[in-house]
Write a structure and sequence with these properties.
200 residues, 5-stranded antiparallel beta sheet, alpha+beta, globular, 8% strand, Structural Genomics Hypothetical 15.5 Kd Protein In mrcA-pckA Intergenic Region, Chain A, 9 helices, Ribosomal Protein S4 Delta 41, Chain A, domain 1
Amino acid sequence: MARYTGPKRRLSRREGIALFAKDAKALEKKGAIPPGQHGLSRRRRISEYGVQLREKQKAKRIFGILEKQFKRYFDEASKVKGATGLALLQTLETRLDNVVYRLGFAKSRNAARQLVSHGHIKVEDKKVTIPSFKVSINQTIAISDKLRDNAQVKKSLEDGTALPEWLDRKATVGKVLRIPGREEMEQSVNEQLIVEYYSR
């Protein structure tokens, strides 16, 4: 199961936004200076292709996906009737690790991915260890009995992150009510630029 294991703050600096919760304060302090020793001096004008590439890279990094899998998601979305960009975002949002994050069981998508891969999440009372598992409408997602009293899970639930309307949660059990609409999905991603990038 491949995932990015390199330095994370430099990714946030490259994209100019806090991709990970811990990076927000650092970006506020230093500003969005690109990584590398020439980060301040090399401020080139970005081409149209460059803007599209950066948007694709940003979406990949927000959801913690590598290139090959992201391209496969796009190819699948392009075969769906309707807007390709919307279908792509819906696929990303209904990944199990993202649903666990949206339900408030974890403070970040990385932490949610770890909960899933370590076997602490059940879908329809069956243990699922695949973060990319696609959750369907009316399926229930629950934290395993062993982890219900975990301090980090409790803290995450107590923090009271706003629950999207397409999800429902009671204690440590959540449910997918419907496929999310565009206004309920990741707002920092411009999916049209990603479609243009792959349509070159």
